[in-house]
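Thread: "does anyone have the structure for this chain?"

Original post by V.I.:
We have the sequence but no experimental structure in hand. Need at least a predicted one for the grant figures.
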Amino acid sequence: MNQYYIYILTNKNNTTLYIGVTNNLIRRIYEHKNKLVDGFTKKYNLNKLVYFESTTDVESAIVREKQLKAGSRKKKVKLIEKENTDWQDLYGEIC
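Reply from O.Q.:
Generated one for you, tokens below.
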């Protein structure tokens, strides 16, 4: 059974948020942390995993990603702080 992850990254000051989806969370966060992929996260130094959720259905993962992206920053912050009040980097937990 495949697993898909919706995740939120930020920078060290928690000022910019990025939402993505992947089927391999450890690999993908590693790529972000080591700036292996050009793009938004590399440009804004977004490498701190502050939130993630999982599903076994790829279509629901994509729908959820779009839902989160469409939400306000306030809603995203509330979601993060519900699970991760101190905005700790969760990468160590998933490795």
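V.I.: this helps a lot. The chain has one domain: 4-84.
O.Q.: and Residues 19 and 41 are 10 Å apart (CA to CA).
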